[in-house]
């Protein structure tokens, strides 16, 4: 895969959907379709990575992730789209001797050079001496470092525009959170009277502190009105309980929206439960940020499948 492809679709579309679970409570539901920003680099990853790749100014970027990391794959795609060389430091040196999984094959197809490190080194990579040694060994000594998960001050500032695009459009904006970088920027971009709700997909209850630290790094202090709920992680990262999967399937059929399971499904489920619990007053407009899309099916080798799939169906748009 080479080439820049289409330009990003920004601002991303905003579409209202009709869902009786919300209507019954007098709540309007909008979908903020960040999954449509770019076919190869969806959602918040575009908003977070593009400013960092610009800042690299011609240097390679190096970043970090596990064997199934969405962030690594996004960084590789961003590098291809923006013409920036990428180096991925991957957790687990035992992986170096095995065939690459699908996620890592994609990274390589997008031009990322992979470097595998053992788990204990990987865990210690925030220590400056360890990082310096890893970068040296990876041949990335002069490279621009993007942290694991991609949330640094530039990434957070890149997500401010997401909030700005939603000014005057909703009372509550919900987003799924991994590192919390997207929430940190989104909340800062909203107007007075709007609030952001982060849905943690990881267990641990540490996210509020992270978001606060990210806002302090990016803006010098807390910004906007936001909160985090820790009730909807479904057992932790990458855990998709059967009921959550069923919920997501049903949502897909009902609204023609492909529902990414690790983040987006948990956020939509949270909004549905909270609405049914009466957490939003009648008359509230809730915008759900669709931060990503499910993986495309594995590319087949048959020539008939070599074109990209059609874009997902769009429901009635309020723009
Ligand atoms: C990476 C990712 C997130 C999490 O973003 P953070 O800024 O790390 O909180 C949310 N949704 C999807 C689909 C993602 O890929």
Order of helices and strands: EHEHEHEHEHHEHHEHEHEHHE
- State the total count of DSSP E strands: 10
Q: Enumerate the spans where pLDDT stays under 50 for 5 or more consecutive residues.
A: 301-319
- Structural class of the secondary elements? alpha/beta
Give the count of structural domains.
2
Distance between the terminal alpha carbons, to the nearest Å? Answer: 33 Å
CATH classification class of the largest domain: Alpha Beta
Largest β-sheet summary: 6 strands, mixed
Mean pLDDT: 92
Strand content: 15-25%
Please count the helical segments: 12
Reading side by side through the largest sheet, how are the strands ordered?
Answer: 1-2-10-7-8-9
Instruction: Assign the CATH architecture of the largest domain.
Output: 3-Layer(aba) Sandwich
InterPro entries: ACCD_DCysDesulf (IPR027278), TrpB-like_PALP (IPR001926), TrpB-like_PALP_sf (IPR036052)
Keywords: Pyridoxal phosphate
GO molecular function: D-cysteine desulfhydrase activity
Protein name: Pyridoxal-phosphate dependent enzyme
């Amino acid at each position: 895969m080479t080439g820049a492809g289409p330009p990003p679709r920004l601002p991303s579309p905003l579409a209202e959907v009709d869902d009786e679970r919300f209507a019954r409570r007098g709540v309007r539901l909008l979908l903020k379709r960040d999954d449509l920003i770019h076919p190869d680099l969806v959602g918040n990853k575009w908003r977070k990575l593009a400013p960092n790749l610009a800042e690299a100014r011609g240097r390679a970027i190096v970043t970090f992730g596990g064997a199934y990391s969405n962030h690594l794959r996004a960084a590789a795609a961003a590098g291809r789209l923006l013409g920036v060389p990428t180096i991925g430091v991957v957790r687990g040196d035992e992986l170096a001797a095995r065939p690459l999984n699908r996620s890592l094959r994609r990274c390589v197809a997008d031009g990322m050079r992979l470097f595998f490190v053992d788990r204990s080194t990987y865990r210690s990579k925030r220590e400056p001496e360890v990082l310096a040694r890893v970068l040296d060994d990876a041949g990335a000594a002069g490279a621009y470092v993007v942290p694991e998960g991609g949330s640094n001050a530039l990434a957070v500032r890149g997500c401010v525009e997401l909030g700005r695009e939603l000014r005057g459009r909703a009372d509550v904006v919900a987003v799924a959170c991994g590192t919390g970088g997207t929430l940190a920027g989104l909340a800062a971009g909203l107007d007075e009277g709007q609030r952001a709700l982060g849905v943690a997909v990881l267990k641990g209850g540490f996210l509020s502190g992270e978001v606060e630290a990210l806002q302090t790094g990016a803006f010098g202090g807390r910004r906007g009105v936001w909160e985090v709920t820790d009730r909807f992680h479904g057992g932790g990262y990458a855990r998709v309980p059967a009921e959550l999967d069923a919920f997501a399937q049903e949502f897909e059929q009902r609204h023609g929206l492909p529902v990414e399971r690790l983040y987006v499904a948990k956020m939509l489920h949270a909004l549905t439960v909270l609405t049914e619990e009466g957490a939003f007053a009648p008359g509230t407009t809730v915008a759900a940020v669709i931060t990503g899309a499910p993986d495309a099916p594995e590319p087949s080798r048959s020539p008939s499948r070599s074109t990209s799939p059609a874009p997902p169906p769009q429901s009635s748009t309020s723009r």
